[in-house]
Amino acid sequence: MVTVLAAAVVMLSLAAAPRQGTVARFAPLDNPSGTQPGLAPTTSAGDRAEAVRLIRRLPVDGRGAKTGYERTRYGGAWIDTARDVPMSRNGCSTRDDLLARDGQKVTYQKGSDCLVTSLRLRDPYTGKTIEWRRDRDVVQVDHVVPLAYGWRMGASRWTESKRLRFANDPLNLLPVLGTVNEAKGGSGPASWLPPSRRARCSYSVRFAQVALKYHLPVTRRDKAAMLAQCR
């Protein structure tokens, strides 16, 4: 009997472990720091109820003007100088950190521990698998809460250091299919959601996590859209 039980434990462990060569995907409720890869679906009734509670905490406000917004208001693209966010100040660009976090079969430029040259990516927004090389723009790193959206909802009044954290925080960043990222632009959840319906509650949770972390309100329509994905 002991032998049979031990064998069953081994089989369960093997079934629970990710297959060799794959990257485990984490649902946002299990990844509040954003340091773990992917955006696994939020599917259980308990997790979806927790997601609704989280989203309900979001304050709402009207959307301000885009006047004065430029990408440079959040610092240089992917610079490694933000303080007090995970994965920063490690000598690698933010973009390379995120590619390495979420990619499979990651390769680096010879002599570098940072510069990612190729990978395989499971796009969290569509479910498609992408084979990427550095000379192709098919993979882009998306700001879950777009920088332009943040600007219009209050980031225009933040300090430069807070905007730098917001732009380089792994909680707010996901490598995705470039065409999908471009289609999203600066939209909130009422105007844009991931093409994959299975990703929509998790995306809403991640959006809410970022907004709550940075004390950023959302529009009433965006909050309603997020709640609708997780009910």
Explain this structure.
The protein has one domain. The chain is an alpha+beta fold. It contains 8 helices and 5 strands, in the order αααββββααβααα. The protein has a 3-stranded antiparallel β-sheet with strand order 1-2-3. Strands 4-5 form a two-stranded antiparallel ribbon. A hairpin with a 6-residue loop joins strand 2 and strand 3 (129-133). The N and C termini lie far apart (45 Å). The longest helix has 15 residues, at 2-16. Helices cover 36% and strands 12% of the residues.
Protein traits:
12% strand; alpha+beta; two-stranded antiparallel sheet; 231 residues; 3-stranded antiparallel beta sheet; 5 strands; disordered N terminus
Number of domains: 1
How does the overall form come out from the CA principal axes? globular
Query: Terminal Cα separation, in Å?
Result: 45 Å
User: What is the strand arrangement across the widest sheet?
Assistant: 1-2-3
Helicity range of the residues?
25-40%
Whole-number average pLDDT? 91
Q: Supply the number of helical segments.
A: 8
User: What is the helix/strand order?
Assistant: HHHEEEEHHEHHH
The largest sheet, given as strand count, sense and whether it forms a barrel, is:
3 strands, antiparallel
Task: Note the beta-strand portion.
Answer: 5-15%
Based on DSSP secondary structure assignment, what is the total number of beta strands? 5
Structural class: alpha+beta
Provide the gyration radius in Å.
Answer: 19 Å
